[in-house]
Design goal:
Distance between the termini: 97 Å
Helix content: over 70%
CATH architecture: Up-down Bundle
Radius of gyration: 25 Å
CATH topology: de novo design (two linked rop proteins)
Structural class: mainly alpha
Order of helices and strands: HHHHHH
């Protein structure tokens, strides 16, 4: 009888260990998906930031933009390039989106700039890149949601706590509501 209880106890411990290993591996997989998704956002933001110098030079050649607009674009590009967290990247991304909207809105009043093949090409590159950034954000946020859900639900919450994975990942989100508004172009200073 003691042998049967010992065997049942060992089998029970083995089953629990297998379940814990499975949950741990699942959490690690989810964590790696979040990291990979973040890397994809980072790649696309850097791709977009690399287009900025060409855009600025093209625009400077055709229009007398306010220095503030070009300075804002440059500051936003620097913020994105130096971002280490999703929150920092989102802040720089928001700044850049607003500045780019202004540049493209102001460009509407310069027919020769709008007709420039270089400017058209850059606009297309930005549009393609914006779509890639949006897709990468969605993938990242989906991955974060899966991970955060897994570490919040039982038995994942227990395993995550044991192995130090209980901190939820932060979502990539727009916190500044002003970037959701349409840009109002002011042409009065462009004479």
């Amino acid at each position: 009888m003691l042998e049967i209880l010992l065997i049942v106890g060992v089998v029970g411990i083995v089953i629990i260990a297998i379940i814990l290993i499975g949950i741990y591996n699942s959490l690690i997989g989810l964590q790696k998906r979040v990291e990979n998704a973040w890397a994809q956002i980072d790649v696309q933001l850097k791709r977009r930031a690399d287009l900025i110098p060409n855009l600025i030079e093209t625009v400077k050649g055709y229009a007398k933009f306010e220095k503030k607009v070009l300075t804002d674009v440059t500051k936003a590009r620097t913020a994105i390039m130096n971002a280490k967290t999703p929150a920092q990247a989102a802040k720089g991304d928001n700044m850049l989106s607003g500045a780019l909207k202004t540049i493209f809105a102001v460009a509407e009043s310069y027919p020769t700039l709008k007709a420039s093949e270089n400017f058209k090409s850059l606009q297309e590159e930005f549009a393609t890149t914006e779509n890639r950034v949006a897709a990468a954000r969605q993938l990242y946020n989906d991955s974060v949601m899966r991970f955060n859900t897994a570490i919040a639900q039982f038995p994942g919450v227990v395993v995550a706590g044991i192995f130090g994975m209980s901190n939820p990942k932060e979502f990539y989100e727009v916190k500044d509501a002003s970037v959701r508004k349409a840009v109002k172009a002011d042409f009065s200073d462009l004479g």
